[in-house]
Amino acid sequence: MMFMGQYEHSIDTKGRIIIPAKYRDDLGDAFVVTHGLDGCLFLYPKEEWESFVEKLKELPSNQKTRRIQRQFLSKAMEVALDKQGRILIPALLRTEAGLEKEVVFVGMMNRVEVWDKGRLEEQEVEESPEALESALDELDISL
Fold first, then answer.
1. Mean pLDDT, to the nearest integer, of 34-60?
2. How many whole angstroms separate alpha carbon 64 and alpha carbon 4?
3. Buried (b) or exposed (e) across 4-35, using 16+ Cβ within 10 A?
4. What's the pLDDT band for 123 if we cut at 50, 70, 90?
5. What does the alpha-carbon distance between residue 62 and residue 49 come to, in Å, rounded to a whole number?
6. Global pTM value
7. What proportion of the chain, given as a percentage, has pLDDT over 90?
8. Would you state the pLDDT for residue 135?
9. Which strand ranges, in their side-by-side order, compose the sheet holding 77-80?
10. What secondary structure does DSSP assign to the chain, as a single string?
11. Using CB atoms within 10 A as the burial measure, which of 9, 16, 19, 82 is most buried?
């Protein structure tokens, strides 16, 4: 499974959003939505979610670990596709990610990020080509 690409959709007033057709098979009929990083939400297929939870379980028991576990697990919810290929994003998560109207799905290998379009555009403005090249050099990745 490899999520990649970027797709735009609108969220309706009830908080429902169509999952891009390209992602539906790999996400499955039911999957997990949770708090993401940088102001987005994460969508995980059940198998990937279980793998992530196992990694969280293996962390040493300390305050930092509990904070990380709490951030991801307390806001995680299983969602299911309806007949139109939509899911209901819980209100708590919609508010946290600032999802109002225009939403962008971004494939990120083993998960999908869900962004408010304006918030994603702000992130992208901050990322200059030079900063990306520098980050690749730091990670010793050559293209």
1. 95
2. 31
3. eeebebebeeebebbbbeebeebbeeebbbbb
4. confident
5. 22
6. 0.90
7. 84
8. 80
9. 6-10, 102-108, 111-116, 41-45, 30-35, 77-80
10. --B--EEEEEB-TTSEEEPPHHHHHHH-SEEEEEE-STT-EEEEEHHHHHHHHHHHHHS-SSHHHHHHHHHHHTT-EEEE--TTSEEEPPHHHHHHHT-SSEEEEEEEBTEEEEEEHHHHHHHHHH--HHHHHHHHHHTT---
11. 19
CB atoms within 10 A of CB 42: 24
Task: Return the structure tokens found at 98.
Answer: 């600032």
Whether 68 has a pLDDT exceeding 80, the answer reads: yes
Q: Which residues pair with 30 in a beta bridge?
A: 80
Q: Which amino acid is at 23?
A: Y
Q: How far is CA 120 from CA 21, 49, 79, 93, in A?
A: 21, 24, 23, 16
Tokens 């408010």 belong to 116
Give the residue among 23, 13, 50 at the shortest CA–CA distance from 105.
Answer: 23
Residue 136 has pLDDT above 90, yes or no: no
Q: Look at the block and give the residue holding tokens 């987005």.
A: 40
